Amino acid sequence: MARILIExxxxxxxxxxxxxLRWREWTRRIEAVLFASATPVPREDLARVVGQGVxxxxxxxxxxxxxxxxxxxxTKVAGGWMFRTRAAYAPAIRVAADIGxxxxxxxxxxxxxxxxxxxxxxITREELKDIFGKEISRDLIRRLYARDLIGxxxxxxxxxxxxxxxxxxxxxxxxxxxxxxxxxDRELLDxxxxxxx
Length: 197
Description:
Elements: H1 19-36, H2 43-47, H3 56-66, E1 72-77, E2 80-85, H4 90-96, H5 108-120, H6 125-132, H7 138-146, E3 150-152, E4 165-167, H8 169-174, H9 186-191
Antiparallel strand pairs: 1-2, 3-4
Helix pairs in contact: 1-3
């Protein structure tokens, strides 16, 4: 059953306020939406909480400037924006915060398989075996799947129509990528001896 979203009557224009107060209210709304969201928020969703014709990009730039020197930042990942702790504070968070399963904790081989999926998707386990010269265990695939780094893609047109694997939005978020086009160039990786194939 489709979920129907009822948009509340939200005052957006603030024509009764001076321009600087209007701008401040819009930036606070953007901050509130990003703070409340566990996933990246696309431009279209942010545009629904500000006045007509207001530049979401300029609001985001102002928020980012205000966060300079702070422990967290606003980043564009997976086609939207979200707040993230700056990488320099990761050790402090690991020591003090209960982040448990949020850590990727992947082995170098897990990351190599994940990279192969990212560069060759949609890809089957058999095709991964061809790349690495050995069987890729179902447990490894399950680990990547459980962390929502890969998902099931379309069935392959090969005999038996095996499942294929693709990366997910969470993959982009975990590695701080806006899109797969930001992956390092495969030829450069191969030239450096770091390529998966």
